Amino acid sequence: MDAHLRDLRYFLAVAEHLHFTRAAEELYVSQPALSKQIRALEKQLRVSLFERDHRDVRLTAAGKALVPHAQAVLSAWHAAEQALLTAANTLVVGMSTAPGRGLLPAVRARLSDVSLQVRQVPWHDPTGGLAAEETDAAFVWLPMPAPERYRWVTVATEPRLVALPATHRLAAQTTVDFADLLDEPFLALPTSSGALRDYWLAVDARPDRPVTVGAEIANTEETVEAVTAGLGVCLIAAGNTSLIARDGVVVRPVGNLAPGELVLAWRRDDRRPLLAALVAAVRASL
Amino acid sequence: MDAHLRDLRYFLAVAEHLHFTRAAEELYVSQPALSKQIRALEKQLRVSLFERDHRDVRLTAAGKALVPHAQAVLSAWHAAEQALLTAANTLVVGMSTAPGRGLLPAVRARLSDVSLQVRQVPWHDPTGGLAAEETDAAFVWLPMPAPERYRWVTVATEPRLVALPATHRLAAQTTVDFADLLDEPFLALPTSSGALRDYWLAVDARPDRPVTVGAEIANTEETVEAVTAGLGVCLIAAGNTSLIARDGVVVRPVGNLAPGELVLAWRRDDRRPLLAALVAAVRASL
DNA sequence: ACGCTGTGATAACCAAGTGGCATGGACGCG
DNA sequence: CGCGTCCATGCCACTTGGTTATCACAGCGT
User: Fold this and answer.
1) Which of A13, A140, A219, B187 sees the fewest Cβ atoms within 10 Å?
2) The domain B88-157+261-285: what is its CATH number?
3) What is the pLDDT of residue B276?
C-alpha cells in the first residue's frame, strides 16, 4: 500500500543519523513521535528496518535496500513539485530577512504574470534555500558560502546596529562604540551558517580574542526572546530595527562597523527566463 | 511539503477518468471523499489541477504537468516495495480462492527460509494480481487471460457444484442436472474477469441461449449474500463448499460438467530462484 | 414550465492517524 | 549504586480521511 512521503523523509533521517533523538531534532519532531512513525512504517511494510538496542541503531538488510529507493521516490516528488511551479509560472523566493522597504509589492506589480511564492527560511541556511534548491531566488545577507555558485544583485546596504536589553548598561547611550561590546556575550547564527555567523558577530572588527556566544538564534522571535532574557546582545541590520525593537529591547547605532549588504541571490546555473524577469523587476524597483 | 502517495493515486485516477464518480468507484472510496482529497491536494500544492463544471472535468496546465511526475513517483515507490520484498526474501502469493487442502502450511514448511505473504485478491482480476505485478505467484482458476505470459502448475482438479438457496425448488434433489439450471439467473464474476466469467457461467455447456446474470460477485461474502437473497445460483468448486454452504445456502453436485482446474501461476518472465523454489515446494507438496 | 437525472460540492459526524509530554526501562559508566 | 543516555510506551489533544445525507446546478424529456 502507499505510504506518506513524510515517513520516507523520517526514515532517511534515521537511516542517516542512526540515532532517533538526533534525527528527530533535525526533523523538528519529538523523539517519541519519530519512534512511533518508524514503527508504524515498519508495521505497514511488514519489515523491520532498524535493529535497535540501547547502545545503537543499525539498518537491517531491508533498511539498507530501502534507502536508495526512498531517495528516488523523494527526488521524483521534488521533480514533480518543480514541474508544477514551472507550469504555474511560479517562482519561490526565500527570505532570511524581509527585504521590506516596499520592494516586494513593487516587484509583484512589475511581474503581474508571474506568481511569487515568498517563503521564510530559517537562519541556519545562509543561502536562503538556494543550495537545497528549495527556492529559486532568495533575499540573503552577504557573505554567501560558495559564492562562485551564485549571482546576486544588491538590494540594500545598511548599517549594522546593536540590539540590547533595555536594562543594559549601554542602553542609556544614544550610540555604542563596538569596543564597548567586546566583552559582551553575543547571540550568534547557527554554526551551519558559516561565514555569515562570523559576519554578524563582527569577528573582523575584533581584536584577536574569542567571541563569547550567549545563545544561538534561528529567527526573529528567538532573537527578541534571547535579547530580552539577557542572554546576549546582537547585531542587526538597520532595516530590521522595527522587527526587533519591542518590549524590552532597544537598538543603538554602533560606531565604526562596516554596513551589511542585503542581496537578491540566485543560482548561477539557473538561466530560466522567468528568473531573469524577476531579477530585472527587482533591479527596476530599487 | 510532502504528500501522501495515496493522494497521487487519487489524482491519477481522476486524471484518467476525468470523472470524479467513476474514479471514486475505481478507488473504492466515496465520491465526496475523493472530491475532498483532490481539493486538499490542490490547496496543499497551491495549484488547481482540474477545471470542473457540471458537465465535465478537465485537467489544467498544472494538472497535465503533474500526471507524468505522479506516475514516476508511484512507480519509484513500487520499485521500493519490490526491493523490500526481495531483501526480506518474501514472495507475495495472491489467492482468488484459498487453495485450502493443507497446501499452504506444507509449502511453508518446505520453504522455512522464505517468507510467504498471502494476499486475498478480488475476483475481478483473473490473474490474481500477477498482471499488475502485485503478486509473485497466485492461486487462480483456469482459464487465464494472455496464457502465453504465464506458467502454472495444477494444484487441484475439482468438480464444479452449484450453490442454491436452501429454499430453491432444486435444493431438495441430491444431484442437479445442468439442463435444469439453464433458465436460472446466475451469479457472475465481474466482466473484467473475461473468459473466467464465462467459465463459471458454464457458457460452453449451454445451448445457444444468453445467460441471465442475477448479480455480479467479487468475493465469498457477496456470493453467500447473493445466493441467500435469491439473486441467482452459482457454480463453485468442490473445495470451496465449506466456504459457501452455510446459513440458507446448499451445494449440490451437477451432472455432466467438466471439472475446474486450480493452478499456482506465475509470470513466465519471472526467473527468480526464490520463485522457482516456491514452485518446487508446491509441486513437492501435492 | 416541470420534474428527472447526472454530477460535483457541502455538511455533519465518526474513526484513525499524528503529534506532544511525561514517563518507563534497559544498559553502561564512574 | 545512582546517573546519564536513549529508545519505547501511555495518555491526551488535534488533524485528517472516510462515510452518509443532502444540496445546487445544468441538461433533457414531457
Assistant:
1) A219
2) 3.40.190.10
3) 92
